[in-house]
Design goal:
The protein is α/β, with parallel strands linked by helices. The protein has helices spanning 31-39, 70-96, 113-123, 141-148, 159-168, 206-219, 268-276, 301-311, 338-346, 365-376, 408-416, 434-437, 449-457; strands spanning 8-9, 15-16, 19-21, 43-47, 101-107, 130-134, 151-156, 180-183, 190-192, 227-230, 251-255, 283-286, 294-298, 313-317, 322-326, 329-333, 351-354, 359-363. It folds into two domains: 8-268 and 435-457, Aldolase class I (TIM Barrel), CATH 3.20.20.70; 301-423, no CATH class. The protein is 31% helix and 17% strand. An eight-stranded parallel β-sheet has the order 3-11-10-8-7-6-5-4. It has a five-stranded antiparallel β-sheet with strand order 15-16-14-18-17. β5 (101-107), α3 and β6 form a beta-alpha-beta unit. α2 runs parallel beside α3 (113-123).
């Protein structure tokens, strides 16, 4: 046991281990994983992002959409999300045996996030002790938490972001601020909070950013509120300098990637070969996500194809001898791209598609048909989506849908429910390569959550 890691009060009066399961959407962090973390005396987290719900026989209900309009499909998505979130909260409470804490994770920029969060909390009263929220600026998070008397945990990647949230909203509800999750934008998996002033290729020292965050929190008299460190936390022995450190203050630790390989995780067996084959650098930080945020995912065939697609584009100009047809309409392209365009076409990328940045991207005919179908099938899973031009407030952004992106809901559902992992999006932290290096996982060992937590408590 690490002497510096002591139980503390999280989301209420109960002392629990300051070890927190990071929420992973689309059914990866569910009631089973959350309940197991809580039963081990820690903090479990289930995801409210497209969570699974079940029929009367206990079978997962496929999230199939029948609405003819995007708005109709969006309402179906909300109902799936609410039913799934309530189901997972109840499973987590049952599995926890009354121990630990149960948190719900939500993305602020998911479609109708405030409605989904509110209705899950209404339908699962007494099951949830805290709500965690990131991927955006969740200004109304404290108001929702106050309505239900539960604690709230904003996810931020900088002191500046937290300062803005606190000054505008959180200062009205300090008593329910359970902690601040600092998610390192260069190390964490999923969507990352890099600002326009920060370079994806020049990571900053997390210690300095944590010190800055603590200074801001102290200036608001939040001295005792823990910072929950997230992003490539693997061995606690590597974080000893952060514990009982007055510059950083009270801390807890969030584990996002390691809980994937536990017996309770629904994707563990399917994902294990992929995770165990990773090497350093196999997780890529890109701007491919239709949210517009940076995101970190395993570099598989899907990511490679999307990165290559971005390379196959040429700018549109008013007059040029280089002309291509975009669905029957002739457009002029920069003549400096003539050789490249001819090469792309000769390689089978014969269909040109417009992008919102006044360029044309070249794809294979079958790719274009998939892109167009996915755009037509949009169900509004995001508050604003670059891929489909859906906008929750306006109905549409008015911009051209971006064919360089992808339907994030479709591919995450595929990854979580038996789809081809080479062709699906697999979010992971940048420490995922350590599965192959950590002797704990030798001989394809998949631990229970209790075994994982016992291992973490040794410092490794």
């Amino acid at each position: 046991m690490l002497l510096d890691l002591i139980a503390q009060k999280i989301s209420g009066l109960k002392d629990v281990l300051p070890l927190i399961e990071g929420g992973k959407g689309i059914s990866v962090s569910n009631g089973e994983t959350c309940g197991a973390w809580a039963a081990a005396g820690a903090v479990g987290t289930f995801s409210a992002v497209n969570a699974d719900s079940y029929d009367e026989k206990g079978n997962i209900i496929p999230q199939i959409y029948h609405g003819k309009t995007r708005q109709e499909r969006h309402r179906e998505l909300v109902e799936y999300a609410v039913a799934g979130g309530i189901a997972q909260a109840k499973i987590a409470r049952e599995r926890s045996n009354g121990k630990g804490r149960i948190h719900m994770n939500a993305l602020w920029e998911m479609g109708s996030s405030q409605e989904v969060i509110t209705r899950i909390l209404e339908g699962a009263k007494g099951c949830i002790h805290g709500v965690v929220c990131g991927a955006g600026m969740p200004y109304s998070l404290s108001e929702i938490a106050a309505k239900f008397g539960i604690h709230y945990y904003p996810i931020v990647s900088s002191a500046r972001a937290f300062s803005a949230l606190f000054r505008r909203s959180f200062k009205k509800c300090i008593e329910l601020l359970g902690g601040v999750v600092y998610e390192d934008p260069w190390l964490a998996g999923g969507h990352n909070g890099l600002s326009n002033a920060e370079s994806p290729n020049n990571p900053m020292n997390p210690y300095l950013r944590l010190v800055e965050l603590r200074k801001v929190m102290n200036s608001f008299n939040l001295v005792s509120i823990p910072i929950i460190i997230a992003g490539s936390v693997w061995w606690l022995s590597e974080w000893q300098d952060y514990m009982k450190n007055p510059e950083v203050g009270n801390v807890a630790f969030q584990f996002g990637t390691r809980p994937i390989l536990t017996t309770e995780c629904p994707v563990a067996k399917a994902w294990q070969p992929k995770l165990m084959s990773l090497k350093r650098g196999d997780v890529k930080l890109t701007t491919l996500s239709p949210t517009g945020f940076y995101s970190s995912a395993i570099n598989n065939e899907m990511i490679s194809n999307l990165l290559a697609r971005q390379e196959r584009q040429a700018p549109i100009v008013e007059i040029s001898e280089l002309k291509v047809k975009v669905f029957g309409r002739e457009v002029c392209l920069d003549s400096d791209y003539t050789e490249r365009v001819n090469q792309w076409i000769s390689n089978g990328f014969t269909t040109a598609m417009l992008t919102p940045e006044n360029t044309v991207v070249f794809v294979k005919p079958e790719e274009s048909q998939t892109i167009l179908k996915d755009q037509r099938d949009c169900c509004g899973c995001l508050s604003a989506c670059h891929f489909s031009s859906w906008c929750q407030t306006k109905g549409a952004t008015g911009k051209i849908p971006d064919p360089r992106s992808f339907c994030i809901q479709k591919t995450l559902q595929s990854a979580a429910h038996g789809g081809n992992l080479d062709e699906s999006l697999i979010f992971a932290g940048h420490s995922a390569y350590r599965f192959a290096e950590d002797p704990f996982y030798e001989n394809n060992f998949i631990p229970t959550t209790q075994q994982l937590i016992d291992r973490i408590l040794t410092g490794f």
